[in-house]
Automatic annotation (TrEMBL):
Signal peptide as annotated in the record: 1-38
Keywords: Membrane, Signal, Transmembrane, Transmembrane helix
PANTHER family: SECRETION-REGULATING GUANINE NUCLEOTIDE EXCHANGE FACTOR
Name listed for the protein in its UniProt record: Uncharacterized protein
Transmembrane segments: 514-536
Region (Disordered): 476-501, 598-622
Amino acid sequence: MPQVRGKCAAFQGALGVVMVSMLAALVALLCLGAAVEAAVVTTSPATWAISYDELRPTIAVKYRHRFYYQIPAEPRGAVVLFHGCVHSGYNYFPRSDVCDECRGLPEEMSHSLQALNRGYAVIAISSWDRNTGCWSLANDSDDVKQLVREWQREQGLRDLPLMGMGISSGASFMLKMPRHLNFTGLLSEALGVTPDDWGYQRVKEGYPPTIFIAMMKDGSTVEKIMEDKRILVDLRRPVAIIRVYPRLVYPSYFSDRDPLYISKPLSIEITNALRKIGMLDVEGNVIIDPRYTTLPWLNMLKDAVPSLKGPVTTFKAQYVPDWNDTFSSDTKVAAVYSLMNLAYAYHEIISDYATVAMVWFESGGKADVADLQTRYTYGLPPAPYNLPVAEVSQNPLKPLMRQERSALEVVVEGEEDSGSSLFTALRAAADAEAEAADDELLAYSQEVEEEVDAADAAKQLPLSIAVPAHLLSRAAGANPRSRASRMVTAPKRSAEQQPAALAGEASHSGLATVAGGLLCGSAVAALLAAAVWLIARHRRSAAQLSPVSLGPATMQAVVHPAPAAHHHAGANARLSIIPGVKERFEYEVVEQTGSPFSARRRVKTAFNESPRKAGSPHKGGA
């Protein structure tokens, strides 16, 4: 017994030592975690170690591209920044004594600051086409591949993570570049690439973790992003979507997002003027599309705010900043234009989630994006405006036009018909909002379908999807002819009718299935036979009556000449012959920037998905 007691005592002592050791280790881990958390750079500009004044890039030119880069003391990796059409790499840095040509814009500079403060080197490359500013896989991919690889070697970054962040045309180009560069993460802003032109199949090491930022007003882009996500999910690659909705323009909105160039008093003056000219309602909602309106609101704003400087030009009856003006160093007008488009949230660069993306990429795409958004999102409004903005974000389909007819005169003063004209604009905006609601309903249903396997999907009833309450409430005001409205507002059986109806359906389901299958099979076979006969007969008669010609753009034999409308001069005549190309032209090249460009050159360069194979001094790779 004494020996047993001794052994028990020894065991208890050893157990106590183990428990104390484990407790000490736990405390050490907690302390280490707290230290790491404290060391993480926050997204508040007030706590950034690197400020706007310290954005001082090195400028270089290689492989026909001008680029701007800055490297912190101990880089943990690199971020390649791809601008949109009519922009340049110099928009990611402010003008300074080391970069006189730089013209920093608020969202672009915020990308640079967040990356540098996270410990990443940044490199912003200008596209080869300086007439349009757009990117082309044919003209840019080989050069950018060589440039980035060489830059990584020279700066000692070759073995460190490489991330990419792109907007619009730059995002389209970036999403196709993993076949050439070993990215560890991609952030695509306001763009989903067309799957047939993506080239994701050519990425040998697996497509990198990807975040798509979807501006939910742009229904066509949202559809592309949802399709891109489905492809990456099928490939078992990390992918996430961050949704962006319209936001309020509050008095200090412009100075909060562009503190380097716009002061708070100037921001208040700009906001008041925007209300008076009818761009904002009394609550701060952007009620007219800043990019596509023919209202010369930028000129009106400059007249109302004399201290607001920056060149303005016209394009297709629209007034836009003169992005190509290199003589004026004032970017205030361009900044206001960009930030108004951001608030409207249809198609614009947005820096709110740059740090979110970097942290997610660091986790290999395994972290919870929603949790990261609560901790690392940049650009939140001040406290008095948190509630309205959060309300819009959580309920994006809530009507933005909440003011009454009697309040319209407060927005525009000095005009007798200001109320009626603005009311017309508000009505048009409300109609557009209803369309956006319909797009959101469809996008939501598509997203739900991803999470339902094929076996369950076959059993689902049309109304079995759990639609959020705010979408259901919004459906009542949507277009009754739209698909989404029919999906949500279809008549439902009452609780008393359902048991009897289900019993009747169960008793007749077997016979109905057999009979329906036979009838449908016979009908389909007859239709197919008729279609084949008609096509064959049509081709025989066409071959006898019409000579074969060559399409000028396709260089392939076509039987029927193109309609007369396709033969007018210009690029559109050629694009309209090729299925899908005109859509890509409007989507990836024009990019909704509203700025002059050379359409004919873009036709020749934008849609060739293969890198140059002849005449390139860089064919060998690196």
